[in-house]
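Two proteins follow. First one:
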Amino acid sequence: MPSAKNGLAALLYRFRGYILGLIAIVLVITPPCVFSTEIRSGVFIAIALYVVSALLRVQSRRFIGEHTRGHVHAADALVTCGPYASIRHPLYVSNTGFALGLAFFHLGVSLWVVPFMLVVVAFEIALSRIEDRFLEKTFGDVWRAWAAKTPAFFPRLGGTACGSSRVPAQRTFWQAFFADSSSWLWLLFCNLLLVLRKVAVFYV
């Protein structure tokens, strides 16, 4: 039933922060990797994912201004420039990168990363589809024209959707960085928990 589907989507979007928190708790209570080679490789992969995801997130924030953190969708305009000229959901991509970075940091390069990766990717894809439906309903043909030439997650080689409607960024790099301070604090907090978890396993 459409109403049930819409209700489930609304619940998923409203409680997305709690769901991510639950996933983080499961990761923290999972025993960390104990093999030094896998630990080193996992840390290097995690750092790379953190850097790339942070740059993508900051660049996205430069163009969208304020983004929705509550449980109600809101959008004054359809942003199609910056990272949004190449992919429709750069923030969800960056979220996935951060989450996978945490998994590699804690679990190393091991098969334990796979189920965590599948859950995170499935969750972010579900959120992106909810957002697509909202944007299509809000902006109609404008969104459909943009979505037709802009992939959801993986940029298409050659050309962008921004075209003649190119607009300047609303913020400088550092303004966008500090505007998203809660994300950086959350990432720092999660890494600190994982470090303490490793210390508890290896030295206590």
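Second one, unrelated to the first:
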Amino acid sequence: MTPPTDPTHAADAPDPAAEVLDIVDEHDRVVGQAPRGEAYARGLRHRCVFIQARDGAGRIFVHRRTPTKLVFPSLYDMFVGGVVGTGDSYDDAALREAEEELGVFGLPRPEPLFKFLYDGGAGLSWWSYLYEVRCELPVNPQAEEVGWHGFLTDEELERRLPEWPWVPDGLEAYERLRAYRAGAAGLPRPPG
């Protein structure tokens, strides 16, 4: 497990576009590898994790992505997460991404909820595993990833949905999570 990135060394960080990803088919089977930048440019299906992080009071971590993000820059998101690197498991990626984006170390392992295939058209397609985690640690989000952040109640988040520009994959994940929690998603719980 890697500790969160130290923002004072952001210039030393590897280029996100160069990170190698597993390319997968419509059944989430690995069919090759490609650098993240190439996967995005060519519309190659890959894997991502979405983690809904709540603080000790049950509020949801919400953030605005920085303008330098490769996908969906400057939009709001109610999940932390990211791509699953080559050879990584969804579970390991979920913990790593949650700790990195929240800027914490020592989170409990996020609980897996369900997986779905996001297809936003125009080559934007990825297998998405949704998790939840409780973060009772003080957060210090990565400056290169997060332009603004706050913890919102469920009601505050619902009020912001029509007002703020949201990442489309996060909106779909949020709608699926609401349906899942209402028992209407028809999605099986993960084994274990």
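SUMMARY FIELD: The longest helix spans residues 168-181. The chain has a mean pLDDT of 88.
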